[in-house]
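Supplementary Methods, section 5.1.

A reviewer requested that the exact input to the structure prediction be made available. We therefore reproduce it here, unchanged from the version used in the analyses.
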Amino acid sequence: MNATSRKALLALVGLLAVGTVARAVLAGEAPPPGKITLVPVKWDGYLARVVNKKAKLTIVDAWATWCGPCKANFPHLVELHKKYAAQGLNVISLSLDEADRPKKVAEATAFLESKEAVFTNLILVEKADDAFEKLNIGAIPAVFLYGPDGKELRRFTLDDVDNQFTYVQVEQAVQDFLAGKPIAEGQPKKK
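The structure derived from this sequence is encoded token-by-token as follows.
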């Protein structure tokens, strides 16, 4: 096999591997160990992904690589996945980085790999202002809890300066829900 054929074969194998991971993630499955990918989705695709009849609860963490507090708090999301995935928690990270800029996508993917984010990782294909408006938030990080039907149960945002959330509060809400307790009232959806 000559060098050109070898390169073509390696490229094909790489594309097949990425395709397999992307199909698994799009089907709602976690990527295989060591295979972390960032799947681009439009708003409707995001809404479809929070519906997960196999999960008791879905948590979505909206973040971006340009957000220092997002990156500092991201390990909490990884820990929630490790602690509660077996109990029915579906974890999704939602990057608000610029999906149309390959360098930004690569930076976000590298960050996810460094944190071993072996759950569903989406990047919203929307302009930043549109993404914030559709999520109904003014700042990130922001965390959303959804029932199996995709209905938002609770949100944790930084929009109210007098009511900043902590990931301890997020974990308590996850624990309560998975234990069959009602989730305490939180911040209402903005209108």
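The chain has one domain: 3-178. These observations are discussed further in the main text.
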